[in-house]
Design brief:
heterodimer, A: ABC transporter involved in vitamin B12 uptake, BtuC, 13 helices, 2 strands, B: alpha/beta, six-stranded mixed β-sheet, four-stranded antiparallel β-sheet
């Protein structure tokens, strides 16, 4: 097999992500574990968005809804577990399965309505739905309303995992990221995935060769929502806090930016994008208070000059490397 | 095989299809000719279901298909090629045809197995590519094929849906003479294997290939007959063929 700088860099990135807690512990900066833990969680969210946005061409502007659903499942569950002593409501497996079920159901409803529209209308309807969920959260005074809810415990995986340890949580996040990447890989190359790609490429043609495209798009929408719901469960465990802000429309925008920045419609693009996004945010905000002033133009430049995002740059690097190595070989001959 | 009964479709004040009726016999190649704006593409779109007629019925293979959606008509065995290239430009040529095979290989809720390694899809796709002479271009990204090759790919995709009837909307539009010749060869190879409805501008091609010809002018069908009779039809000569010496 030919050497590919792109695969090399991506492998290195994944290995580095796997080693973060070890490195953070050894330099005694546990803060980095928390920072990278956030990257992993948002990576999962971006990987799930990429299924519908990157492979299916559905620009959903409400994907943070599912982060919110997952977060509130943990928030509400642990609230009742601590306040009312309802033990099962603190259970991690209960959180995961309820978050998946509720997110899938929300995806089914939102998708069934919004997928009947296209283009800008689709974007606006998904945005409207996410605002609806946002205001439901703002209005739920029992669970902190606008101020949100502090978690007095994390999801309880008794006997298996102790999430109060940040390193355990980190590796749980990492495992979920690897699983979602593998799932994404299988899905997007299966018959189902080819159907999605075809619909993105030319929807009219898909219909004329006999595909009932609506049901495939809807199922993709539901799957993406369910995976993102899992990310929500992890997210509130990470921050020990839930508030309506997790599903504000700007969060949906962030997920889109991460996916586009990293490389839309590629397996690892969303991970690269989420890591780059949060790293830039961290670095720039350390330099100046007005970091967004620099962050915005940077994103614009990357989108304009690197079509295909950072992963697109790596593909270009691969091509350059191939030519470079061919030249070297011909010289030797 | 296909029966169109008093079909009417208007866009605003314009009658694109004006009480049109004709019948396509099983196994024949039936051509529709007519000057620009005669409503030929609108006719095809109504047969495939992309446009809804105002009134009239379309009977295909004994079933009234006037009210059923596009993908179900495809499932019944209607396939079309487009006047403007209509493919999946960012996928490989092989993927394009494999997707068309997949469309009629049961549902696509298979989430796990790699579709690009599935011989059930890939092997038939290759056979259809061979049939239109594109097998050597299988690995190329479809968007990079030449214009003539796009048209060939369109036909391979239409064939891959295993239709009973093929609707071809100007398959030779914009082709050079060499490419057009190759396309006539492909169509001759398909004749008798399938029922074909052909819309085409090139008179030589139409008179070489067609068993029956319907002439359309301003949405009306002014004649349906065998090529020899159409040549002599006075109304046809006046309305469409004009002063030109036909088939000379």
């Amino acid at each position: 097999m030919k050497f590919s700088p792109r695969i090399y860099i991506i492998t290195l990135l994944m290995l580095a992500l796997g080693a973060v807690p070890l490195i953070a512990d050894s330099i005694d900066e546990p803060f980095y574990t928390v920072l990278f833990s956030r990257m992993l969680i948002l990576s999962i969210g971006a990987v799930s968005l990429n299924l519908i946005l990157g492979f299916g061409g559905m620009v959903s502007f409400g994907h943070a809804v599912y982060l919110g659903i997952g977060s509130y499942v943990v928030g509400i569950g642990t609230f009742h577990a601590v306040e009312d002593g309802v033990e099962w409501m603190g259970n991690g497996f209960a959180h995961l399965s309820i978050a998946v079920a509720v997110s899938a159901l929300a995806g089914l409803v939102i998708g069934a309505i919004s997928l009947r529209t296209h283009g800008v209308y689709f974007i606006m309807i998904t945005l409207a739905f996410s605002q609806m969920f946002y205001f439901i959260a703002v209005g739920s005074e029992n669970y902190g309303g606008d101020d949100g809810l502090s978690l007095y415990m994390r999801s309880d995986f008794s006997g298996l995992l102790d999430l109060s340890n940040d390193n355990s949580l980190y590796y749980l996040n990492f495992a979920f990221l690897l699983a979602s990447l593998y799932l994404s890989h299988r899905l997007t190359n299966s018959r189902f995935g080819m159907t999605l790609r075809g619909t993105k490429s030319n929807e009219q043609r898909m219909k004329s060769i006999g595909f009932p495209v609506f049901r495939y798009r809807l199922v993709a929408f539901v799957i993406a929502g369910a995976i993102c719901g899992l990310a929500g469960v992890l997210s509130s465990n990470q921050t020990d806090f839930v508030s309506p802000a997790v599903m504000h429309w700007t969060r949906s925008g962030d997920l889109i930016i991460m996916t586009v920045l990293g490389g839309i419609g590629t397996l690892f693009g969303p991970v690269i994008g989420a890591v780059a996004f949060l790293l830039l945010e961290e670095l720039l905000s350390g330099i100046t208070e007005y970091w967004q002033l620099f962050f915005g133009p940077m994103l614009v430049l990357i989108v304009i000059f690197a079509r295909g995002g950072i992963d697109g740059m790596l593909v270009a690097l691969d091509r350059w490397w191939l030519q470079f190595s061919l030249k070297k070989n011909t010289k030797v001959d | 095989m296909l029966k169109v009964n008093s079909l009417i479709k208007s866009f605003g004040g314009l009658l694109a299809t004006d009480n049109l009726s004709f019948e396509v016999e099983v196994g024949t190649l039936h051509a529709v000719i007519g000057p620009n704006g005669a409503g030929k593409t609108t006719l095809i779109r109504q047969i495939t279901g992309e446009t809804k007629p105002d009134s009239g019925t379309i009977i295909f293979d004994g079933k009234d298909i006037s009210d059923i959606p596009v993908h179900l008509r495809s499932a019944l065995g209607l396939a079309r090629s487009f006047q403007i290239t209509n493919i999946f430009p960012d996928m490989s040529t092989w993927d394009n045809v494999a997707l068309a095979v997949q469309a009629h290989a049961g549902h696509s809720f298979h989430f796990w197995k790699d579709a690009r390694k599935d011989p059930v899809l890939r092997e038939p796709a290759l056979v259809f590519l061979k049939q239109v002479g594109l097998e050597e271009r299988a690995g190329i990204v479809a968007g990079q094929l030449s214009h003539g090759e796009h048209r060939q790919l369109e036909i391979a995709m239409a064939l891959a849906t295993r239709p009973k009837m093929l609707l071809l909307d100007e398959p030779m539009a914009g082709m050079g003479p060499e490419e057009a010749k190759a396309m006539v060869g492909i169509l001759q190879g398909l004749k008798r294997k399938l029922t074909i409805l052909l819309i085409e501008h090139d008179m030589d091609v139409v008179f070489t290939l067609a068993d029956q010809i319907t002439v359309m002018v301003y949405g009306r069908g002014i004649a349906t007959d065998a090529p020899e009779a159409i040549r002599k039809h006075p109304e046809v000569q006046a309305a469409y063929l004009g002063e030109e010496e036909v088939g000379a």
